[in-house]
Specification:
This protein has 219 residues and is α/β, with parallel strands linked by helices. The protein is built from 9 helices and 8 strands. The strands form 2 sheets. It has a 6-stranded parallel beta sheet, sandwiched between helices. It has a two-stranded parallel ribbon with strand order 7-8. The longest helix is centred in the last third of the chain and has 31 residues. The N and C termini lie far apart (39 Å).
Length: 219
């Protein structure tokens, strides 16, 4: 698959290297020309580094937005307006950055209003993506996303699929943002559901760690 990673910080670099290791063609969009040149020298032909975000987007099947970049904003209205002239018709847009709950739904609705876009928008909490934790994948109705599963095939991580706004709240809870660190009724159904998912992920991570310790003891 052809992937673009936008938001060329260290997290973007780490994700791009991981995707390249999964045998994808990867464009990493750097925030400055010196940064892109340095990465070209250090990474050689492992990645295609550029500062031309529109060039990378036009040629990619899957777009990962991990942070703001020099040419893109994570404001949903601004990002959709910027994307529409460039994004491929059937592309998958993956938001893997800190956003306000509801952002993914808003972007999906605005992109789907366009006659030239029939792809999808999903959310992956970066606090999970960049740590040794299970992945949460937020989709419109909590269904599986075949395109993202294909992009991540070979990356052995537990994956939980949920509604996108629930996944956005998982990010808030895991990142300990104010007002989302407890399943209070005032936070709404999605926040309470996210709190349940977060507890499940933490429990699963602890169990996995214990299994590894047991394996080491018996090996």
């Amino acid at each position: 698959m052809r992937c673009a990673v936008l938001g060329g910080d260290l997290q973007g670099l780490s994700l791009a290297i991981r995707l390249a290791g999964l045998k994808h063609d990867v464009w990493l969009v750097a925030n400055s020309a010196p940064c892109a040149e340095r990465w070209r020298q250090e990474l050689g032909d492992r990645l295609l580094c550029t500062i031309n975000a529109s060039y990378a987007v036009k040629r990619s099947d899957v777009l990962f937005f991990v942070n703001r970049s020099a040419s893109t904003s994570l404001d949903p209205h601004s990002l959709v307006e910027w994307l529409l002239p460039h994004v491929a018709e059937h592309a998958l847009v993956v938001i893997a950055a800190e956003v306000q709950p509801g952002t993914t739904t808003m972007m999906r609705q605005q992109l789907n209003q366009s006659q030239r876009f029939s792809g999808d928008v999903v959310y992956v909490p970066p606090v999970l993506l960049h740590r040794p934790l299970p992945l949460a994948i937020g989709t419109e109705h909590g269904e599986r996303c075949a395109a993202l599963e294909q992009a991540l095939a070979g990356w052995h991580r537990l994956q939980y699929t949920m509604k996108d706004q629930v996944a956005e709240y998982v990010q808030c809870i895991a990142d300990r943002r104010p007002s989302t660190t407890s399943p209070s009724p005032r936070n709404g159904k999605e926040a309470r559901e996210a709190y349940t998912w977060w507890n499940k992920m933490q429990s699963q991570t602890m169990l996995t760690g214990l299994e590894r310790i047991r394996e080491a003891e018996w090996s």
